[in-house]
Amino acid sequence: MSDFGGALKLLSEHPDYGLAILGVPFDEKASYLRGQAAGPAAIRAVSTGKCYNPETELGVNLERDAVLVDLGDVDTSGDVDKSFGLIRKGVAAILAKGAKPIVLGGDHSITYPVLQAFAGRYPKLDVLHFDAHPDLYEDLYGDRLSHACPFARVLEDGLAASLVQVGLRTATEEHRALAARHGVRWVEMKDFRDGLELAFDHPLYISFDLDALDPAFAPGVSHQEPGGLSTRQALRVLQSIRAEIVGLDIVELNPSRDVSGITAAAAFKILQEVAGRMVRP
Ligand code: MN
Ligand code: MN
Questions:
Q1: pTM summary value
Q2: 12 CA distance to ligand 2 centroid (A)?
Q3: How remote is the CA of residue 131 from the centroid of ligand 2, in Å?
Q4: Which CATH superfamily is domain 19-279 in?
């Protein structure tokens, strides 16, 4: 465990935490290169307070203004059904405390069980999804739980009151049809302009696939897709959101491709800025 810029507190001393890290070392639903299971450890390792401080750019000090704990990793040693069940259970336990989960993936398939748990607490939940890919395949090679499919499942099950997807640049005709059918709002990269401000009516969950970022900024992903967001552009969108943010996942970090560690550092930066907005909307 590391210390998230010095912000981390001990669970034993702070059972009534407000923000909780939950790692999900899982990459069994990756369709191409695996390695995302090592993501949580890499984000923890990079986040050391020897290198970073607990201040966000918007003036929240996560050590002083938040109670952030690390609940460790979900046990993913069993089969997929068991792992997804433990993800639901872990997230539900955080929500039952009235706290906000920050989930570290893992491939993107894990967002489906996370949002199943959220549905138990938030019958109306808006979802903001950053990704190069819409992740709206009905199935990929016959697998409906692939990391290419979580948002098809989320829409099908009615787990999102609204879904906004930002950073897309790989959409297929099938994705377009499904998105249109469910009223999904798309901000494709070809149309992205600085100054994008998003507002939401309901509590907001953010799912951040690191391949939304341009591979120049975040090469440590399995599907490097050029033409993406700069880290700054993503941060600006996150910092300007008008909503009560109640949950976050950061997924698809593949440390084996993250030679300099810059992608893990970007993940940590995003974590800090969103955590700051959770504390001070
Ligand atoms: Mn994804
Ligand atoms: Mn992606």
A1: 0.98
A2: 36
A3: 5
A4: Ureohydrolase domain (3.40.800.10)
CA of 64 to the centre of ligand 2 (A): 34
pLDDT at residue 1 is higher than 70: no
Q: What is the pLDDT of residue 224?
A: 98
| Short-list 62, 145, 162, 148, CA closest to 102 | 62
| Average pLDDT for 227-240 | 98
Residues 21-49 have pLDDT tens digits of 999 999 999 999 999 999 999 999 999 99
Percent of the chain scoring above 90 in pLDDT: 99
CA of 209 to the centre of ligand 1 (A): 5
Two tokens, residue 192 = 């992205």
**Structure-token pair, residue 99:** 């706290």
Centre of ligand 2 from the C-alpha of residue 232, in Å: 18
Tokens of 124: 């109306």
CA distance 156 to 83: 21
| Nearest alpha-carbon partner for 73 in 5, 21, 145 | 21
User: For the chain, which residues make up each domain, given as ranges?
Assistant: 19-279
Span from the CA of 172 to the centroid of ligand 1 (angstroms): 14
Provide the 3-class DSSP secondary structure of residue 176: helix
The end-to-end CA distance of the chain, in Å, is 28
- Distance (Å, rounded) from C-alpha 149 to C-alpha 136? 5
Sort strands 19-23 and 68-73 into parallel, antiparallel or unpaired.
parallel
